[in-house]
Protein: Matrilin 2
Organism: Seriola lalandi dorsalis
Amino acid sequence: ITNSFITENPCKAVPLDFYFVIDSSRSIRPNDYEKVKTFIINLIQFLKIGPDATRVGLLQYGSVVQPEFSLKTYNNKAEVEQAVRNMEHLATGTMTGLAIQYTMETAFTEEEGARPANLHIPRIAMIVTDGRPQDTVEEVAAQARQAGIQIFAIGVGRVDMNTLKAIGSEPHSEHVHLVANFSQIETLISVFQSKLCLDLCQTVDHRCEHQCVSTADSYICRCFEGFMLAEDGESCKKCGDGVMDLVFVIDGSKSLGPANFELVKQFVNGIVDSLDISKKGTHVGLLQYSTKVRTEFTLGQYTTAQGVKQAVSRMQYMGRGSMTGSALRHMFEFSFSAKEGARPNIPRVSVVFTDGRSQDDVSEWATKAKNSGITMYVLGIGKAIEQELREIASEPDEKHLYYAEDFEKMGEITKKLKSRICTGTQLTPSNKKSVTRTTQQTDLNKNQITNSPLETLESQLVHETCPSESVL
């Protein structure tokens, strides 16, 4: 693909009348409100905004509907972006039905800037909500759809899926999306990109082995879960050379709480997805500890990723004290024994997860484990103690010790882990197809390129045990 082709055939935005309908209720925390604004700004990068191109309007709602700007207010992208940045959080109720009614009866009228129906400009409303409406939505949403408005419903957190389906257009697989938290809302950008612009991947011979994804000026190749992008930027491969015996040591103490324990399980399975787990490949074992230590499964128990992931999903939260030292002792004395499936002359790696201060000493058994040849990675969350983390981790610290302020940081990258474990760099410029990324595209992908602590941990894990593979 040549630069001249891209110049002549950019990712062409389709003209739309596009309205954002944003939940601004009190249940949304201020930092989450900012993430919604960032999501909106990133999304409009795919739109060519202007009176004869796409027109953008926005309202936010709580107990009342507050129009921020109409379809006729702004004529360019910079003005829309600034208006979004200037929005202030309402922090009141959740009258979603009222907001949809306003969208239908007022926002998409010609008086407010919508173009006449006979021009057949698509009318799209994107509704973002984090909770259950305080009013009814089913009837008014049906009326809006019948009036020709295509509705995308995005739910964040504990939103009732049936409510989202009552709002969104058919097919629901394309119009209804649910993410676990506001940090994950950015993962929807690529989903909507293909809906908002002409997909360059469909017009060129892209040669991507798995997936082609259009960008504002070109395209990139991506791989399915458990694969990494090869050096040619087109083909996909497993991290097959990374054979190791890997034992997770997972904190199940009461300070986590059941919800965060589920996030830890997702974290473990994210790593598992990107390893070649097989009889001759990587083997995985797992301990959970609180006041006591429990072997959830041994290194010799499962020889497929599916078996390991199912075992992780079945784990029951212990929810008591935090005896990290006892867990390290158990790992050292039993987990890497031949009886539990450890193999001779295979690299031994342990990933220790903790969210707080241990009730016993960690240094003795961590030192013994490291001296025996076990590479120790440690991940601390929240109130984890830096000194303890340093005592557990192998040297150098910058390669083996990782810390995140809260569990939300884990949720932020869980989706990325499943497909990017081996490199974490699939969106670097070296994988782009013969073009220079624009400033806007760089901003859009900034969060996907930057290594966060957890992402670096997983990349490092695989890289340390995959010496024959180059990290791009």
